[in-house]
């Protein structure tokens, strides 16, 4: 999770600033709407999606027109002017055309103005993110130009910021603008108590359909008393993994191994069986207009229920883990894991996604702040698993298949995750240049080459280039993936020059055939 923006930057962007002693928190409750209430919910969410698509088309039409004019040789001064995409400009234009535009004229008055404002705000934010990425001002993955939202793929959502937004005193109903009073699936006492005590006020409410049911999320400004962890001076290192979800080691020498519940792995057999059942039923076909059968709907509902159960169990387990860590320790040290890179490994992607490494760090970031603690994030290239927690000697390489760390200098032997957690805990009190455990300047035990991800400095090589250890490579045997060489009795004559030939690269036979090469005997 990216660090929060400074206060002056947030003011410049117009972001909300909580009062001193207050925090902005979300309270989410599941809803049990009736048939009429559900129709109104879907109508409002559909209005938000339609307004978003209108705003995207309104702005992109100008972009396409300017591109066409540029191809005709029209000068910059004579081209169609840019259409602004700020929320105020989009809202003003939408209010001017909604009564005459055939897309909205017949039904726009059936929904709250907040529904259309939701779509326009999302479109303005999408264009802002795209422009910031083009200017190089936005961190994170690349953001493309906004695209239209499809009815069958977009998540139904609508946000209310004005009007009657209330949690009823019976703790079983909520009231929203134009939607009326809707029954909740769960008790709302945790929010209603704060509202009754005047220690919280509702800023907005967002309804959405996810995980198989309707939900309402209240954005609330909550007064929080300054709290301190149970052990404010304790420092704990948390090493996340797949075999063991987390290894927790503190500076007092206590170590706790938290097993990975593997919520997806444990339900994978049932999920595959449910998917096979759905594939054997008569499902919908958009090309022919065929409607799904009742048996397909029932099987699809069972498959969806399994997915939602897995997600709910994962969320509950992560919340319990992060809450316990933030409530007990004053300082929590975690690694800056490249989760996006891990998900590209097809052998680990499912297990990494099931563990939820990114969500654990995100929750620790705000929970430690609420509890009066702090979260430290180790550098991404910090060798926590390769460094000896006793003497500080760092290994140049430690394959992932080696699960036991053995120090070549002092003889320490322990589980690699345990060793990494101890190093993370020591990192909070370590200073650079000391050579203790957790120091990035610790020297490797063997003076062999290591990549820049493991060591901060590299040894200058003055002699001729040799292989590691000074040993010559063994003769390579025949492998199934070895490229075949052209026999001496065949002369290869190119039919056309390829890029590989111009750079002096060897070309396999299969590539020669694709490029139009042919072999001719002597």
Shape: globular
Radius of gyration, CA atoms, in whole angstroms:
30 Å
Q: How many individual β-strands?
A: 16
**Count of helices?**
14
* Percentage beta strand: 15-25%
Structural class: alpha+beta
> Sheet bearing the most strands, described?
5 strands, mixed
How would you describe this structure to a colleague?
This protein has 14 helices and 16 strands. It has helices at residues 7-13, 35-71, 87-97, 113-134, 189-196, 263-266, 268-279, 294-328, 339-342, 349-355, 357-370, 416-427, 499-502, 509-515; strands at 22-30, 157-160, 166-167, 173-176, 180-183, 200-210, 213-223, 231-240, 244-250, 255-259, 329-335, 374-378, 404-406, 413-415, 490-493, 518-521. The strands form five sheets. It has a five-stranded mixed sheet. Strands 1-7-6-2 form a four-stranded antiparallel sheet. Strand 13 (404-406) and strand 14 form a beta hairpin. The longest helix is centred in the N-terminal third of the chain and has 37 residues, at 35-71.
